[in-house]
Amino acid sequence: MSSVLPNKPPSEPVMALLIQRGRYGLWDESWEGPGGGYELGKDATMKYTALRETKEETGVVVPPEAIFPLVYRGTFEHKGLRMVYYTSVTQLGAKVPVTVT
Q: Residue limits of the Nudix hydrolase domain (predicted)?
């Protein structure tokens, strides 16, 4: 689940980048934030995993300094595997054009 939680009443509309899953699988057609898995040898840190996955899934390039430190870490079981997920906060200073393909 993705959430947008402003820490004070916003002076402008709050916007979030969400993607919709395809029509297959356990979470078919659900909306969520970009995400994916850490790739050994490719990602130096979880922060760079988030940057890479966001670019791969949306085409949006997020500058590393826009991601704040880790906010939450959780785990769950999925198809017999223990999954670990991390939540962080990203703030972009300007609107980023997004092309939907």
A: 1-101
Q: Would you say the pTM of this structure is higher than 0.70?
A: no
The answer to whether 33 touches 18, Cβ cutoff 8 Å, is yes
* Full residue range of the structural domain in which residue 52 is found: 1-101
Number of domains in the chain: 1
Is the confidence at residue 69, as pLDDT, over 80? no
What the block records as the tokens of 40 is: 């050994």
At residue 47, the pLDDT reads: 82
Q: Of 4, 88, 96, which is closest to residue 47 (Cα–Cα)?
A: 88
3-state SS, 70-88, equals CCEEEEEEECCEEEEEEEC
